[in-house]
Write a sequence for this structure.
């Protein structure tokens, strides 16, 4: 599953605005829009995003 797909699933499940997600996850409010336009995140960026998703998934349980 791609990181963008994981983000999209999270956004749907939480109703979080995409700009807020980018700002909270990596400090970049344009992150989701850039990924949708073809931006390829580096390994470090992917790790930061997946860490954010894992932490917030655990908190929602």
């Amino acid at each position: 599953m791609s990181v963008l797909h994981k983000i999209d699933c999270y956004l749907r499940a939480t109703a979080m605005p995409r700009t807020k997600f980018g700002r909270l996850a990596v400090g970049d409010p344009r992150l989701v829009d850039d990924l949708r336009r073809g931006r390829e995140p580096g390994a470090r960026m992917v790790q930061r995003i997946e860490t954010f998703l894992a932490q917030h998934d655990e908190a929602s349980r």
